[in-house]
Amino acid sequence: MAGEKVLIVEDELHALMGLAELVSGWGYRTETARDGAEALDKVMAWQPGIIVTDMKMPRMDGIELLNRLGELPDKQCVILLTAQGSIDRAVEAMKLGAYDFIQKPVDPTRLKMILANASRQRETELELDFTRRRLRERGVLGSLVGSSRKMQDIFALIERVAPSNVSVLITGESGTGKEVVARTLHELSTRKPKPFVAVNCAAIPETLIEAEIFGYEKGAFTGAIERSPGCFELAEEGTLLLDEIGEMPVGTQAKLLRVIEEKRLRRLGAKIEKSTNVRVLAATNKDPREAVDDGHLRADLFYRLNVFNIHMPPLREHKEDIPAILEAILADMNEKHERAVTGVDKEMLARLMSHDWPGNVRELRNTIERAVILCGEGQLESRHLPPGFGERVLRPSADDAASANSVQVEVGATVDEAERLLILKTLESTRNNKTRAAEILGISLKTLHNKLKEYGSASFASAESIEERV
């Protein structure tokens, strides 16, 4: 990038002036500093895009300068000058965010190439930042869509938190887009080139969850016929999302906390530990503080994960975003199913806007996907909506307490009986769609399955027969 600003930091005056003259001759604008402390002042005042710094300097060396630069909102490409004996430190500095390093005495040809590459990367990053700002003005951040005040506040928080390595706890009802938030945090971080691994703690049997997360050695347990890496190893240098964290067994939570704090893990059956470098994100559709009070979530793990909290609002609280979300879903579904749907007619849009969306964006996406497949091309119409769309479920009416979509519990019934009736009635109303029933009830799919196991054969009985016993 022509005229890129380059700050050169070197405590030896002769070397400093020689580098400045060399770099200026290649068309860069240069400024100099004699140590890291002076360099920080120059960065704040002059805002260079590239910094070439010696590693060993008085007052503040190159590594400390690199760490301090990482705390600033504007990012620079940092190129380290290293002596022959400190290459290992330079490699470690690369892991901390340095762009590259070059040994002393400096090879001009190699330095010129590194500067050119760094300048091109800076230009690409600035273009991406500009594109992101333009998209955000239109209500788009990664795969998230929304120009409402609620969503714009979330976008701002994501952009602020994403570049760091801190843990984030993402909360919100099922279907609000918690995993999409996690993926966006990963995509906007320096870990983007590395893996993003998501695991649903509610979907893994308790007997297997430790093996899935931490990995295991051959012979660690019956059926472990070969060594297998866990989610932490699969996500090395990347991001790991632990969804439905409150469903993880408390004993496993203690081991997870230790791995997060010490950045070391041991596979099941292993004798030695190994280091790990993973950013951990967590998500839950429950109130995490209630989960702590109930004993389902360890307080120390909650505080460790909840460095930042991002709460996704239910769709019913930002319905003004529905038209924009529809546009994004239609584009995705047209490509996925090779259809040519152009939009939604006024009547259908009105029905979509008036719906409560208990399943949130996931329900909206599933509804539109079905409509797109049925329609094929042109505009979506109300006839493409699912049968019974918009009918309210489990909302008793004072005039019709015995209606098919209401629950009647007599005085004297136990709480367990009332809960069982509500669960079975919800299953009946969803035609035994357990995922949908769990969303309506506000519980995890794993919890629903556990409840049905408790009920045994009663889970297959009709709601009417249960009602009679109550």
Question: Would you write up a description of this structure?
Answer:
By secondary structure, the protein is an alpha/beta fold. It starts with a strand and ends with a helix. It contains 19 helices and 16 strands. The protein is globular. It has four domains: 5-131, Rossmann fold, CATH 3.40.50; 147-313, P-loop containing nucleotide triphosphate hydrolases (Rossmann fold, 3-Layer(aba) Sandwich); 316-384, Helicase, Ruva Protein, domain 3 (Orthogonal Bundle); 415-469, Homeodomain-like (Arc Repressor Mutant, subunit A), CATH 1.10.10. Helix 17 packs across helix 18. The longest helix has 30 residues, at 108-137. The strands form five sheets. It has a five-stranded parallel beta sheet with strand order 2-1-3-4-5, with helices on both faces.
